Amino acid sequence: DTGVSQNPRHKITKRGQNVTFRCDPISEHNRLYWYRQTLGQGPEFLTYFQNEAQLEKSRLLSDRFSAERPKGSFSTLEIQRTEQGDSAMYLCASSLRSGGAYEQYFGPGTRLTVT
Amino acid sequence: AQSVTQLDSQVPVFEEAPVELRCNYSSSVSVYLFWYVQYPNQGLQLLLKYLSGSTLVESINGFEAEFNKSQTSFHLRKPSVHISDTAEYFCAVSEVTSGSRLTFGEGTQLTVNP
Questions:
Q1: In the A/B pair of chains, how many CB contacts fall below 8 A?
Q2: Cβ distance B80 to A82 under 8 Å?
Q3: Radius of gyration, alpha carbons of chain A
Q4: Interface contact flag, A100 B52, Cβ < 8 Å
């Protein structure tokens, strides 16, 4: 299967700890996106990369959040000094331009619980 | 900036009944429109999309959606639902010019009962 993969699938951490999530996109896709989804809500955009360049960041992405995509392949999302409000599902998607649009394909997500 | 409103948070229906999940959007620029489906404990899957051309688009499993520019709507319909269609459905838009971020609605939980 060559879909988008995310690791870990679940993470439980204590408030104040740092966590890092990894996303491996579909191999030929040049764009990679991060979203956050809380219970009962639709996903909210956090940031996206084209190749290794981070082109846009949402205001939701506070200073405690940082994302990287070295070499334009996999990406990591790090949250420093986690807070209970960070508990959510973190979704990664990748895309390639098709028919004029970038169709995004999502991974299974990483569920973060901050205790 | 864009926004998406899904008018029903929950839609319960009986098997083989028709269903319509409503989606309205607001945007100052041209947008592409998408419906995603999320089955329990699974990731988001693209169900169908409107990019240009015919305003009626169809999926392989019998869903269809119609883009109505004057009403800024993109409602999802199926003439006869199955229990396996039980899932959360999300409507989303992205700007034509940048094609970057997706803006999602809050989702509609479709529950098909026997």
A1: 64
A2: no
A3: 14
A4: yes
Reduced to 3 states (helix: H, G, I; strand: E, B; else coil), residue B43 is coil
Residues A56-114 pLDDT 10s: 899 888 899 999 999 889 999 999 999 999 999 999 999 987 666 778 999 999 999 99
Chain B: closest CA distance from residue A102 (Å): 6
Query: At residue B63, what is the residue type?
Result: F
Taking the mean position of all CA atoms in its chain, how far away is CA A64?
14
Mutation site, B9, B44, B104, interface A, largest A CB count within 10 A: B44
Q: Using CA atoms, how far apart are residues A113 and A110, in angstroms rounded to an integer?
A: 10
Which of B87, B83, B79, B81 is closest to B35 using CA atoms? B87
Query: Which pLDDT belongs to residue B92?
Result: 96
Cβ atoms of residues A41 and B107 within 8 Å? yes
C-alpha distances (whole Å) from B73 to each of A35, B10, B18, B33 are: 24, 18, 19, 10
Q: Strand B44-50 relative to strand B19-21: parallel, antiparallel, unpaired?
A: unpaired
| φ, ψ for residue B83, nearest 5 deg | -55, -35
